[in-house]
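Chain A, query sequence.
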Amino acid sequence: MNKKIFVACDVSTIDEATNLIEKIKDDIFGIKVGLQYISATGTAGIQALSKFKLPIFYDYKAFDIKNTVCESIKSLKKIEISYATIHLLNGENTLIEARKISEGLGIKLIGVSVLTSFSDSDLESLGFSENVEKQVQKLTRIASKANLPGIVCSPHEVKIIKKISPELLCFTPGIRFASEKQDQKRTMNAKEALESGSDFLIIGRPITSGDPKKNIKNILNSIK
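Chain A, predicted structure.
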């Protein structure tokens, strides 16, 4: 089951990141880096992680006008990554062009649906007419039309996505222990998420808070 887990490397220094991965490299599938690490360490931070020979999930959530998004995808050829994220709200045309560029670089472009920190009321306050479930359905159809290989979603929407587009890989953050919620609102524990059909789990604080080696062993034991 370790082949299902990306650890979310939400730290600000290369030393913190490499020390973390060194402890758990044999128990994970890959490494997810987001804005915190990317902004703090730049391309050097990615290069430092490439030594572990694990897939790197570059979660920068590209969202801009078409030309800017596509040029940003082209720039990813400078770093060794396997996956990169793009907001599905960019729309079908931008997603198609960006996906074509990423394929040429050997990078899988993964669409971001609705952030796991958002609830129905959050979407309403932002002017969206649909609730989370209906918005995810709409975005899933866009991802499918654009032929993206996967989508980032909460574990609560996996069954919905698989019903619409079974071929889409589902990458699910919002993995928490039963007593742990924090800033995530649409959460499940690891076993529940896998049973719902998640293809990959993206797990941060449940692994990184405290003893990472002990934490990931507990998670792996819970999903045996």
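The first strand starts at residue 5 and ends at 8. The chain has one domain: 2-222.
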